[in-house]
Design brief:
Length: 208
């Protein structure tokens, strides 16, 4: 008699998502906030996926001084730790990786949002929250939404499986990291204060 309880099973093609709350955010964020708002007053900003809102030029947060340098170090530390974790989970020996890093600041006032997009030509992408811009940030309002990079999973497989749409509360000090191919969207900001974040791309060299 067949015993299908003995059937092997597993889950392939997972999507690694990393999050970390930086313990020095209370000290760091007021400095980043002041520097970003000062810079935004004197520079027109650029436009990519943002609809409304201000976005700085891409670089190493030079306009944020020592606080920017520290955040750049944090991004690199997290990228290395996240990659180490990923390698370890997949049985790959650890490796010190070289990164090309590009970061930029975002200031979104009420109603400003970001269309769905990915970040081609990068390995990891991520965001760090300087100020949620809300009295009580929740996962339901202005958080970033990461969506399943394989939409067929929900469209044609089992639509009643957990949906491929994950929301993060934009808590000050939170850094999240995800593969650059993960589509994401930021719905219109609903807070009274501007939401201030720092987004970044990390490209492993040589790429890919
Ligand atoms: Fe993005």
């Amino acid at each position: 008699m067949l015993n299908l309880q003995a059937m092997g099973s597993g889950s392939l093609f997972g999507t690694p998502i990393m999050e970390y709350m930086w313990p020095d955010a209370t000290e760091l964020n007021p400095q980043l906030r002041d520097a970003i708002l000062r810079h935004a007053r004197h520079h027109a900003g650029t436009k990519l996926s943002n609809v409304g809102g201000w976005q700085s030029e891409s670089g190493l947060l030079e306009f944020c001084g020592p606080a920017g340098e520290r955040l750049i170090q944090h991004i690199l530390e997290m990228a290395q730790a996240a990659s180490d974790r990923l390698y370890k989970e997949n049985g790959i020996p650890p490796e010190k990786l070289d990164w090309t890093l590009n970061a930029w600041a975002n200031v979104n006032k009420r109603g400003h949002y970001n269309n769905v997009h990915t970040h081609p030509s990068a390995t990891w992408s991520g965001v760090y929250y300087v100020d949620s811009g809300e009295a009580r940030p929740t996962a339901a309002n202005t958080s970033i939404h990461l969506t399943d990079p394989n939409p067929a999973r929900n469209a044609i497989f089992f639509p009643n499986l957990p949906t491929g749409n994950f929301r993060f509360k934009p808590l000050p000090g939170l850094m999240i990291l995800f593969p650059s191919y993960v589509p994401h969207v930021v719905p219109p900001h609903e807070g009274d204060r501007p939401r201030i974040s720092i987004a970044f791309n990390l490209r492993k060299e040589p790429f890919p």
